[in-house]
Amino acid sequence: MVEHVYGIIDSKIQFMDFQIKEMIKTKLGKSPHEILIQEGFLPYLDNFPNDDRILDFLEAYSRNISLLLLMRTTLTYLSAETAFHLLTNDKYMDFTESQLRTILEEALYNQATQDLDSIMDRAMKKLAMSS
Question: Which tens digits make up the pLDDT trace of 4-19?
Fold first, then answer.
């Protein structure tokens, strides 16, 4: 399941990168890559057309990428199910970075505790059978 969750996160990041490149191309008439080659740097915000939607889009993009990268860097087989649930219908967007970190840590701790309990139960049963 971990590989599938990584794939979902990576796909979301790639799609968002595509969206932001298209938005910049639409507003400035050039792709970010073309601007970097021709001008050697991205234009300052002052050079963008005066449009609050651009700033809102960039802010949402930054927040979304931050949350996705947090999920990606903390993902383990123990937290994959919770991460998958949060990715479904973009539920992760309902939380701040701090809240999301806490949710993922709790999922990891609770799953690890459950796994440890089941491992100990199986081990005790095997030990009892071998006696």
Answer: 999 999 999 999 888 8
